[in-house]
Amino acid sequence: MKEVRPAPAFWYLCSGFWICFGFGISCFGFAASQQDSQTRPAVVVVVGAPGTPEYATQFTAWAKLWEQACAKSGATFAAVGLDEPGTSSDLARIQQILAGHSEENATALWLVLIGHGTFDGRTPKFNLRGPDLSAKDLAEWLKPVRRPIAVIDAASSSAPFLKELSSPGRIIITATKSGFEQNYARFGQYFAEAIVDRKADLDKDGQTSLLEAFLSASHAVGQFYAAAGRLATEHALLDDNSDGLGTPAEWFRGIRPVQKASDGAALDGYRAHQLHLVHSASENAMPAERRAKRDQLELQVMEFRDSKAKYSEEEYFSKLEPLLREIAQIYEQMDKPGLSGK
């Protein structure tokens, strides 16, 4: 396995000007029509078997935070495990819900797993009421889904899910860096709190990205164990470039990487900082097609910056300038009357 590595910086200085990236996936208001549902992200929260009443209360509270975030963003919300058990198992309901999101869609599907996990050295599972959810089963059920996917597995022993689920177009976050980190994980609480917390908006663009929520939650976890004088038993990972390795939060300072992979592996974090559940007003005003174009250009800029060492300074800036000009033109168009609508 390669060494884990950091995600990239998202504020950068070029020709004396700061270019601030406002990334995102479109979140629109609620509407009854099926056509409108295709323009909104979908959030599916799965609450696993709690084991004790204390955990049940905590897990329900975390799920409610996600529901509140969806109400703010206009995303659709579905929950499994909060109601009384029915004739169908929770495992079957998850499969059914994911099958209902298989149609092609430009907006993201967020799958959040809240609860406990297990790992016997071979098979990672997420504990449910009834049959458990294995990483292999979830990987199979996600294959037909033709839209961006973000999976936040906030359970203990969740790390093996990252490698199993990693794939192009997906962002995978796990609460642990190993399947053998089997103690109760607190990451899910801090992540649910961070996803709409203005304090988690590290680049101050008025919205909290998936990357920023990951970094904020990881920092809060570390503070908890430090304050309690305990050895941390959970270390979250992020993967968004489909190599199945994952990057720990401690490799960042703010949203800037302070380390690089010794093997030169590609960096994580580009896509995670482009995904938001709740948009700022200015981001929400940008038409979806223009936002997609901007995101594509910004990814090209980041990838080009990673290869800077291959070019002379003159060649580097000559190649970078056209990309930056295109990005600037997109924002200039937003300032013109009649061009900033959805």
Write a brief caption for the model.
This protein is α/β, with parallel strands linked by helices. The chain is built from ten helices and 14 strands.
Q: What would the keywords be for this entry?
A:
alpha/beta, 342 residues, 15% strand, disordered N terminus, globular, Rossmann fold, single chain, 2 domains, three-stranded antiparallel beta sheet, 10 helices, seven-stranded mixed beta sheet
CATH architecture term of the largest domain: 3-Layer(aba) Sandwich
Q: Average the pLDDT over all residues and give the rounded result.
A: 86
Which bin fits the share of residues in helices?
Answer: 25-40%
- According to CATH, what is the class of the largest domain? Alpha Beta
CATH topology call of the largest domain: Rossmann fold
Any idea what the shape is? globular
Quaternary structure of the protein: single chain
Biggest sheet, in brief?
A: 7 strands, mixed
Count the strands?
14
Percentage of residues in strands:
15-25%
Distance between the termini: 44 Å
Question: Helices and strands: which structural class?
Answer: alpha/beta
> How do the SSEs run, as a string of H and E?
EEHEHEHEEEEHEHEHHEEEEHHH
Number of domains: 2
Figure out the total of helices.
Answer: 10
Strand order of the largest sheet: 4-3-5-9-10-11-12
